[in-house]
Specification:
The complex is a heterodimer of chains A (about 130) and B (about 150). Chain A is globular and about 35 Å long. Chain A contains 3 helices and 8 strands; from the N terminus they run E-E-E-E-H-E-H-E-E-H-E. Chain A is α+β, with helices and mostly antiparallel strands and about 130 residues long. In chain A, the strands form 2 sheets. Chain A has a 6-stranded antiparallel β-sheet with strand order 6-7-4-1-5-8. Chain A has a two-stranded antiparallel ribbon with strand order 2-3. Chain A has one domain. The termini of chain A are far apart. Chain B is α+β, with helices and mostly antiparallel strands and about 150 residues long. Chain B has 2 domains: about 55 residues, no CATH class; about 90 residues, no CATH class. Chain B has 4 helices and 8 strands; from the N terminus they run E-H-E-E-H-H-E-E-E-E-E-H. In chain B, the strands form 2 sheets. In chain B, strands 4-5-6-7-8 form a 5-stranded antiparallel β-sheet. A 3-stranded mixed β-sheet of chain B has the order 1-2-3. Classes of the chains: A alpha+beta (about 130), B alpha+beta (about 150). The interface between A and B is medium-sized, with 32 and 38 residues.
């Protein structure tokens, strides 16, 4: 894992909360609301871990119950010129931040829609 | 079903509501009992109203990340706009941009109405491509109908 940059072949993960509900139950996908934020959006990079390990780590770090875990390829960063940068913390060395671009902090309407439509996801059981 | 509204009851009502997976079938209105020290009154609010009211209880960090609380004025704006939008297919979500999102999605196209303190923003998408919309003042609610008609165009 390169501590200074996220490589295009990496996968980025974000938990989608049960409450408040940001899941569109008709399309059975996360709403773009799950990815909109005025400040940089937190995700976890894969960092050479297996998916199950990433899931366990996310569930522990997010603390609130999750409806699903969504993931997408970091290569979209390059396609959409989004800013993706490692932001390791004391408790989470995989923590990563996403912005619309290098000049715009946070994730707005267009990129949130892109992430909501293009992400893959795994639905979690309430007890998991 | 009647609810006594306390500081957190709208939030619990919201939880109960989603546990029943009823956001897509919410045309009915449910009675709510408001109680305080001197008065008890029963009013009827729709489940959409209840969803919006529940956002009052979201504190900073509510999305497990750095989302800020939804400002009271945004909640009031959303409640004000609610009667003017079609309820069929309507989904309502809080966002991490201190806004409330009214969302319609027909699978291919989708329409998002982002409600802020001082404006609303419409975004019409064909899949991930932005094909319409704009930023409007609350006196321009007719723009919603225009964009909704485009959403339903084949």
């Amino acid at each position: 894992m390169n501590p200074k940059c996220v490589e295009p072949q990496e996968t980025l993960y974000r938990g989608v909360l049960i409450n408040p509900f940001v899941w569109n139950d008709e399309t059975n996908r996360p709403s773009s609301a799950a990815f909109k934020q005025t400040s940089s959006l937190s995700v976890d990079r894969e960092g050479g871990r297996c998916k199950e390990t990433v899931f366990q780590s996310l569930k522990k770090n997010v603390r609130s119950p999750l409806k699903a875990i969504a993931w997408f390829s970091a290569k979209h960063r390059f396609e959409r010129r989004m800013e993706v940068r490692p932001d390791p913390t004391e408790t989470n060395q995989y923590h990563t931040l996403i912005d619309d671009n290098e000049d715009t902090i946070g994730v707005g309407t267009k990129n949130a829609k892109f992430l909501a439509r293009r992400c893959e996801f795994s639905l979690l059981s309430i007890t998991s | 079903m009647a609810y006594a509204v306390s500081a957190s009851s709208a939030f619990h009502m919201y939880n109960d509501f989603f546990k029943q997976k009823k956001q897509s079938e919410t045309f009915g209105r449910r009675p709510i009992i408001f109680k305080n020290a001197t008065d008890t009154k029963v009013v009827h609010i729709s489940t959409f109203d209840a969803i919006i009211h529940s956002f009052k209880n979201l504190e900073n960090g509510w999305n497990g990340d750095k989302a800020k609380a939804i400002p009271t004025s945004v909640i009031e704006n959303a409640l004000m706009m609610l009667p003017d939008v079609p309820k069929d297919g309507l989904k309502i979500f809080p966002t991490g941009r201190e806004s409330i999102q009214f969302e319609y999605d027909n699978g291919d196209k989708s329409l998002e109405i982002g409600i802020y303190e001082d404006r609303f923003e419409i975004a019409l998408f064909d899949d991930i491509e932005l094909i319409g919309g704009g930023t409007h003042e609350f006196t321009e609610l007719e723009e919603i109908k225009k964009q909704l008609s485009k959403l339903n165009e084949s």
